[in-house]
Write a structure and sequence with these properties.
This protein is 71% helix and 0% strand. It is an all-alpha fold. α2 packs parallel to α6, α5 packs antiparallel against α6 and α5 crosses α7. The longest helix is centred in the C-terminal third of the chain and has 58 residues. The radius of gyration is 24 Å and the shape is globular. It starts with a helix and ends with a helix. 29% of the residues are buried.
Length: 275
């Protein structure tokens, strides 16, 4: 138990460096992607809105618990500081997304679903800072990767749990959501002297760091808007494929019911004629 605590739970005394495409990264990302695919296949086969509604609330509760755990862990080892909350893209989503789901604020889904998918997939594919302070698979690295996997899975579950479909013509909604995240990151960056979403400069970021702050946002903003639109289109196509598998089954059941009804009607008519 002491070994586990020292090596996998307590802060690590290692040289900070990014471990992209390390065994830890590949193992965790692969397991999470398999989990996402399995859960989506189950939902597609069940096509049960009640099941998906319960599922999305459980996933949201787990995400919120993981974020509270992360903040508590940092507070325990490093003392209370508002910086423990963090106000980057994914940290804001990990707080807002579960609250939106748990309070059943379905009208807010279009403002955050695309942002959740973008942030989650980006880290699963390229977790730049996740394994930065850890020498291997650490509790906090697992917490971060699971949270990002849940971001993707919750967003993909939304169409199964509510009357909601991503639409490209409504891509302005996640852009509004992104703008809110950027404003919060700007305010907290200046209040806490932290560089959330590059709001204090792009030091160490290739190409962008050659452009003075805040003018590089003239490049970043259009790229993000284009990416939001692209992901929205991808989600709408994915939902079309998944939900199209559900609709034929429902139609077949309806036709079966109609066939049984017609058969009963014919039988009753025949009996009347015989009488």
């Amino acid at each position: 138990m002491d070994y586990f605590y020292e090596h996998y739970f307590a802060p690590q005394n290692v040289e900070p460096h990014n471990r992209i495409f390390s065994p830890e990264h590949l193992i965790l990302s692969s397991l999470l992607m398999i989990f996402i695919v399995v859960v989506m296949v189950i939902q597609t086969k069940k096509h049960d809105r009640g099941f998906s509604q319960k599922l999305i609330r459980v996933l949201a509760a787990v995400m919120l618990a993981l974020e509270i755990f992360r903040i508590s862990w940092r507070t325990y080892y490093f003392g209370f500081d508002l910086r423990n909350i963090r106000f980057d893209w994914c940290n804001q989503v990990c707080i807002a997304l579960p609250l939106i789901v748990l309070f059943k604020w379905e009208k807010a889904y279009p403002y955050i679903d695309v942002l959740a998918v973008m942030g989650g997939l980006m880290v699963l594919i390229y977790p730049l800072w996740v394994f930065y302070d850890y020498g291997g698979i650490h509790t906090m690295a697992v917490q971060s990767m699971v949270s990002h996997g849940l971001m993707v899975l919750i967003a993909l579950t939304m169409p199964f749990a509510a009357d909601y479909r991503p639409e490209v013509r409504k891509a302005w909604k996640p852009i509004i959501g992104l703008s809110i995240i950027a404003v919060i990151a700007f305010i907290m960056s200046h209040a806490l002297n932290e560089n959330y979403l590059l709001m204090l400069g792009a030091h160490g970021v290739p190409v962008i760091d050659q452009i003075p702050y805040p003018w590089y946002w003239l490049l970043v903003a259009p790229a993000l808007i284009g990416l939001v639109t692209l992901v929205t289109k991808g989600l709408s196509l994915l939902d079309d494929r998944l939900l199209r598998k559900v609709q034929p089954d429902a139609a077949m059941l309806l036709n079966m019911d109609r066939g049984a009804l017609d058969e009963n009607t014919d039988r009753i008519s025949q009996q009347k004629r015989n009488v």
